[in-house]
Structure formats: C-alpha cells, structure tokens
Design brief:
The chain has a single domain, classed as Alpha-D-Glucose-1,6-Bisphosphate, Chain A, domain 4 (2-Layer Sandwich). The chain has 5 helices and 6 strands. By secondary structure, it is an alpha+beta fold. Helices cover 34% and strands 19% of the residues.
C-alpha cells in the first residue's frame, strides 16, 4: 500500500448573505411589476371611463402623438356644465388648489369650497401653477367655456384636457385625459414616474372633489 500526503479538508462553499436575499427580492419585484402592468395599470388608465369615452377624440390629442402615459378618467356629475367649469378654471397650487389631498399637492392649504371670482379670468398662455412659488406648471393652451379646457407643457411632452359632456338637463360627464411622453434619459423621468404610479390617487380624489362641489353649487342654484 502506498501512502501519500493526507487530502486537504473539503472547503465549504461560502455563500454571500446578500446574494441569498437578492434572488427572492428580484422575484418579488418582477411579480409586482407583472401584476401592475397586467391589472392595475389598465384599470387606473381608464378609471370611470367607458369604451366609447376612451375612443372619443378630445382637444389636444394631436399634440402628443405617441404617449407613453395615456389616461382617460370620467365621472358623472349631477350638475350642468356651468356649475362644473368654474371649478376647473380656478385650479392650481397658490390658486384654488386641486380638490385632492391638500397636504401633498397644495402645501397643506385647504382647497377652495367656493367659486373665486378673481380666479375666473384665464387666457391662453396663463400658467396652471404646480410649483410652490406658483410660477411653474402647465399652461392654458385653449378652452371653450363650459365645454373643455386644455393644458399643455411648454416642451410639448404633456397635455391635460378637461371635457364636459351633458347627458341630460341635470347630469354631465366630466372626462379628463392626460397624455405624456416619457423621456427616459432626462431628469424629467423622475416626475413622469411619479405620475405613473400616483396620478390615479390624486386624480380620482380631485374628480370626486369637483363632483361634490359642483353638485352642491347646482343644488344651491336650484333653490327658490
């Protein structure tokens, strides 16, 4: 029998703790992404809107021809357009607010509960303020009183339109459409992603806020 040197002890593979955790985290992220794209995103991009309303042409559709984000939302309001449009005209931070979550989008100032005559005179080119100083945001592109109002960004990447469509003498469909082109390698992508994942929360509350205010205004106007 030939004896050689003793075999070295077997080395136990060293597994990095981080690599063990990375796998499950990656799987979880992928699952969340698939669920968002498959279920949540289609729902939030058309909250409240019918198929016909999705297909409807609205002012400004031609400005952003191939949007990455194309959201059409709608709600029925028991009021005529003239009781709804003034609430849209006066929107904006440092103005009447957004009728949404004031802590997040209006510097914690309460959104207006009344029509403010001083804020009812807007013209194409006026800013719709979205910054704390009231100087930056979208711009009024055009409008037809009591029918529609179109806002747009100066770079042409974003449009936001509000449309009023009477159903009968006492009910109106309020439809809003946001079309945005993402610039993946621009700093603006941070804002775009914020819109992607949180816009439905604010927009839904905003539209319901307009609904409540307009219906109250219509009821008050109907009183003898």
């Amino acid at each position: 029998m030939i004896f050689g040197p003793p075999a070295p002890p077997a080395r136990t593979p060293v597994v990095q703790k981080g690599s063990v955790m990375f796998g499950p985290i990656l799987v979880l992220v992928l699952v969340i992404f698939v669920l968002y794209v498959r279920f949540l995103r289609p729902w939030q991009l058309r909250w409240g809107a019918t198929d016909a309303e999705l297909a409807r042409s609205m002012a400004g559709d031609e400005l952003v021809k191939a949007p990455t984000f194309n959201a059409t939302r709608a709600v029925t309001i028991a009021a005529q357009p003239e009781h709804i449009f003034p609430w849209i005209v006066q929107m904006g931070i440092t103005r009447a607010g957004w009728y949404s979550i004031d802590l997040l989008d209006n510097l914690n100032r309460p959104s207006a509960e009344v029509i403010l005559p001083a804020l009812q005179h807007v013209q194409p080119g006026d800013v719709v303020p979205m910054s704390p100083d009231g100087k930056n945001g979208l711009y009024v592109k055009d409008f037809v009183a009591n029918q529609w109002m179109l806002w747009a960004s100066q770079d042409g990447d974003t449009t936001w339109v509000w449309g009023l469509y009477p159903i009968d003498s006492t009910h109106t469909r309020l439809i809003t459409r946001v079309r945005m082109m993402y610039r993946w390698f621009s700093p603006t992508i941070l804002f775009a992603l914020l819109v992607e994942f949180t816009d439905i929360i604010m927009m839904r509350k905003c539209m319901l806020g307009i609904q409540r205010r307009a219906e109250r205004l219509a009821s008050e106007a109907a009183l003898p």
